[in-house]
Amino acid sequence: MDLVELVSLFPTLAGLAGLQVPPRCPVPSFHVELCREGKNLLKHFRFRDLEEDPYLPGNPRELIAYSQYPRPSDIPQWNSDKPSLKDIKIMGYSIRTIDYRYTVWVGFNPDEFLANFSDIHAGELYFVDSDPLQDHNMYNDSQGGDLFQLLMP
């Protein structure tokens, strides 16, 4: 089983269509006309109708998936699912593996596109084997904050 991210959809579809996949986005990428995040996942497909199979066994698996999700406040409100950039006050950053999902919700400055990792609003930690529906948040029970400190560079 491999983990994939939604951001990999574009480079994968572009590759399937035979289009040139744009280069990865540099940091910062504000003035770049076209770039992409994610990875072309064609190597994970088996093409049985073709003479050659582009699937290459032995390639490293996609072991970690990252995502982020904006929120306008700690409390759900009318624009919680689609806040305007100016309304984003909190950003959730998640790390997902086959075994767990870890999310930390931190303060966010929409004017400078900066997360404040010292301003932690909440955390989530779910173990997939014992909690596949992610109903039991173990963040406060398992020193989730300590885990966050270990993951920070």
Brief digest:
The protein has 153 residues and is an alpha+beta fold.
Written account of the structure:
It is a single chain. By secondary structure, the chain is of the alpha+beta class. The chain folds into 2 domains: 60 residues, no CATH class; 87 residues, no CATH class. Helix content is 10%, strand content 25%. The chain is built from 2 helices and 4 strands, in the order H-E-E-E-E-H. The chain has a 4-stranded antiparallel beta sheet, covered by helices on one side. Strand 2 and strand 3 form a beta hairpin. The longest helix is centred in the first third of the chain and has 8 residues. The protein is globular and about 45 Å long. About 8% of the residues have low confidence. One of its GO terms (molecular function) is metal ion binding. Keywords: Hydrolase, Metal-binding.
Outline the secondary-structure elements.
Blueprint: H1 9-16, E1 65-71, E2 90-96, E3 100-109, E4 114-127, H2 144-151
Antiparallel strand pairs: 1-2, 2-3, 3-4
